[in-house]
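for the recovery benchmark. tokens below, seq after
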């Protein structure tokens, strides 16, 4: 288990990294370097000392630490990937799709989440509190949303190039 797996709160992460002379920029660069080296090893058919599943789970842990400032239970993520297998995961990668896990998390206007850069406008939270935001349930009926967040699900993320965010005016060409 690496440094991220032993830390529970953002302040612990920041203080321990700072005490060790490690900046956030250095952590991001090392995560990127590790991912690149892993892909190079796979391209050349070099076996890693950790299995494909362990690499993906550890990478997801690092992503959660960078975004949320904490780790989550990834057993559901691990079992989903095991069920599909390494060959299918490699096929997804060829298509530009990466498996990720969105942990159970409820967002609030004042949530302290370091990776949350683009937040909803205040009117969104006002409408949510007033009960004016609806969604269709599995039966097709409208139901009022009382909270927004993640339900704890494994999903595939399209990693192909996207336009740079431009305050909602960006376009795919």
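predicted aa per position
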């Amino acid at each position: 288990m690496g440094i991220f797996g032993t830390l529970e709160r953002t302040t612990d992460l920041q203080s321990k990294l700072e005490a060790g002379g490690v900046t956030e920029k250095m952590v991001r660069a090392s995560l990127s370097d590790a991912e690149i080296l892993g892909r190079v090893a796979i391209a050349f058919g070099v076996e890693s000392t950790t299995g494909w599943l362990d690499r993906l789970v550890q990478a997801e842990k690092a992503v959660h630490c960078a975004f949320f400032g904490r780790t989550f239970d990834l057993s559901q993520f691990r079992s989903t990937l095991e069920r599909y297998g390494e060959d299918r995961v490699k096929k997804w990668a060829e298509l530009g799709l990466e498996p990720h896990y969105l942990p159970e998390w409820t967002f609030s206007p004042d949530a302290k989440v370091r990776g949350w850069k683009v937040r909803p406008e205040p009117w969104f939270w006002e409408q949510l509190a007033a009960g004016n935001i609806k969604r269709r349930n599995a039966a097709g009926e409208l139901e009022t949303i009382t909270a927004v967040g993640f339900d704890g699900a494994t999903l595939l993320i399209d990693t192909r190039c996207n336009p740079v965010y431009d305050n909602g005016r960006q376009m795919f060409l």
